Inverse folding.
């Protein structure tokens, strides 16, 4: 009797083991299919179940966005980790998935300066690089070695057009000077997405970046709240031909006008620490009673801090920058810079690649994608180191 029971148990266990693969797995799909996201679904789980390879999950995201271009009932995926219950996905066949995984669309991200020169551009490049790797994009990163090198940037973009890039993601060094080059891209059927600094070119696909005027106004309003009414203030501008810089400056001036602060100087700090230091020296020489300075980027703000320290006036003058890069955050924590305005440069690079690929697939892209602004003071500067 005991032998019979034991045999029965062994047979039952063997049957269950044999059935487990049938219940939990499926052969790779021979035809693509629509799929509605269920609770606890993850891309890698779906890829493992339907494609037989959990690392093939990018194929599902890319295929779904391609379907979205034809049929908006399919989800548009901008983050592979954020699928939601009820989203309609397209799971490609095993053959389709193999083709997708082997395909690399060419996107160039062209910034105003190289990553090594500025932590802001380093973050943009990092966001683009990491996203391109995940979305199977053949990425080129390029930039002039100075934000003033408009001609170099034009030459680099025209070279990319000649080499057959499929989408351009550009932070223009000048609001209008690149327009003829963008016209060439349009004539070649290449979508142009603008990041960081807007352009006057009417045919851009989208602008991805900060509302720079709102950020400048936020900085100005913070300064207004820290100084007596009618105080003298200064602005270190950077190149005003860059729309982002012009917007920041105009936003700050709007705030100063509203609170009655008197702008006694507007000088170009050339986007560098050295430039910021030099013009701050000029400002305090000509205007010894200045109470605050707004610099249109952190490099110039950090230079202003050095000038004020050397003059023994740092405790008397508020310095507010823009970008909240790690060096600025450290300065704020050290009690030198007073504040900065944070952007999300990583997301500019990230969204540039995601939406650049979506444009190649024929998707309609939002005309503006705002990455937001945050006031960074000693209260939250540790989050930006």
């Amino acid at each position: 009797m005991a032998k019979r029971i034991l045999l029965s148990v062994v047979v039952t266990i063997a049957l269950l083991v044999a059935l487990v693969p049938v219940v939990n797995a499926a052969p790779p799909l021979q035809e693509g299919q629509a799929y509605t996201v269920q609770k606890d679904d993850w891309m890698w789980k779906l890829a493992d179940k339907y494609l037989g390879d959990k690392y093939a999950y990018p194929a599902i995201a890319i295929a779904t966005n391609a379907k979205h271009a034809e049929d908006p009932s399919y989800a548009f995926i901008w983050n592979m980790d954020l699928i939601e219950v009820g989203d309609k996905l397209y799971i490609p066949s095993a053959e389709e998935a193999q083709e997708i995984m082997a395909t690399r669309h060419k996107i160039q991200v062209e910034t105003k300066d190289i990553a090594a020169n500025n932590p802001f551009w380093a973050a943009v490049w990092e966001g683009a690089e990491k996203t391109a790797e995940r979305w199977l994009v053949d990425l080129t990163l390029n930039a002039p070695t100075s934000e003033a090198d408009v001609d170099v940037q034009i030459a680099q973009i025209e070279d990319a057009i000649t080499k057959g890039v499929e989408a351009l993601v550009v932070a223009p060094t000048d609001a209008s000077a690149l327009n003829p080059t963008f016209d060439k891209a349009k004539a070649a059927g290449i979508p142009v997405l603008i990041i960081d600094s807007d352009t006057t070119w009417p045919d851009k696909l989208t602008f991805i970046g900060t509302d720079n005027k709102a950020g400048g106004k936020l900085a100005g309003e913070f300064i207004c709240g820290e100084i007596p009414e009618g105080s003298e203030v200064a602005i270190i501008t950077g190149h005003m031909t860059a729309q982002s810089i012009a917007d920041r400056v105009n936003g700050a001036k709007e705030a100063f006008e509203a609170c009655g602060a008197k702008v006694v100087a507007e000088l170009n700090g050339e986007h560098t620490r050295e430039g910021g230091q030099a013009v701050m020296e000029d400002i305090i020489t000509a205007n010894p009673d200045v109470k605050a300075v707004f610099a249109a980027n952190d490099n110039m703000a950090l230079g202003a801090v050095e000038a004020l320290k050397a003059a023994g006036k740092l405790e008397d003058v508020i310095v507010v920058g823009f970008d909240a890069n790690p060096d600025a955050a450290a300065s704020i924590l050290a009690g030198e810079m007073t504040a900065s305005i944070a952007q999300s440069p990583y997301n500019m690079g990230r969204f540039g690649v995601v939406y650049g690929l979506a444009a190649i697939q024929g998707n309609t892209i939002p005309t503006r994608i705002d990455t937001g602004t945050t006031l960074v003071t000693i209260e939250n500067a540790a989050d930006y180191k």
